[in-house]
Amino acid sequence: MPINTNGVFVYLYLKLKINMKYRRLGSNGLKLSTIGIGSWLTYGMGIDDKTALNCLKTALDQGIIFFDTADIYNKGEAEKTLGKALFKEIDVKREDVVLASKCFWPMSPNPNDRGLSRKHIVESVHKSLKRLKTDYIDLYQCHRHDTETPMEEICRAFNDLIHQGKLLYWGVSEWTAENIEEAVLTCEKYNLYKPVSNQPQYNIIRAQIETNGVMAMCEKYGMGEVVWSPIAQGLLSGKYSGGKVPKDSRAAHSKMGAFMQDVVSDTGLLTKVDKFKQLAESMNATASQLALAWCLRKQNISSAITSASKPEQVIENSGASEIDFTPELELIVKEIFA
Fold first, then answer.
1. Are 273 and 197 in contact (CB under 8 A)?
2. In this predicted model, what pLDDT tens digit does every residue of 34-63 receive, in sequence order?
3. What gap in Å lies between CA 71 and CA 4, rounded to an integer?
4. Which residues are identified as catalytic?
């Protein structure tokens, strides 16, 4: 139905049947589902294995093929849960999914069990392979930048692992534009495999990569963005209207809600989210779907990584791939969150 906001009419048609879309990872040949499934604070921590299994089955049914995790997520338990569910309980064909994981953060008191040294990268990959129950990982990313390790060492470590067939691609997460360019230029100098992805936080209220040079740098070098927290940990779903915290929500969970206490008490922000939710409902969409579609309006966003704790959320989020996010609609959303 048409939406009239300050004389601007926006038309949106949502199909009844979800038709998942797929995008290339930047300028590379690998394709990802535009909606991905992540495991931060959920698998091996916030939800039980049975619920995780049901979420993953639902994701596959919806056409989702991209699954993201990291070694630090509950100290390896998320990787274990994901690997067991996909390759033992569901028994999915390995070639039918794209797996991503990451390393950087300390995994033990061992001074070498952290950072991006060749030693830690290689050992982390071997451990991730074992936990994920696979012979190779499609995309392995540096979870943060390491100021103590020379860039050439980082790049050569990933290059060697790709040559060994243990990784197919490598990327970065939460790196600055300067860090990204240094990595690319180092790889070009020594003829090494270059990073192909960046995993930053990106949503309507956290869109710094549009202004700090990161998005532009990734576009310059053909790197795809696989963004995390596209719904701001559920805040943009509108479920916290008036500061109320539903008992079954992430914010109410002792572990999953650890990073949400400040935002659910921000009355000004919640009022804006209420207006955003009303906009979505007037379009026969949900606020979560519209928030995801906002991220995907940028073609360099290869996938928006969602973190569902219920199968119903997976189905709902998948519907975002159907939304045509027009320039007119973008202006309306910008006005709401001004």
1. no
2. 999 999 988 888 899 999 999 999 999 999
3. 47
4. 73
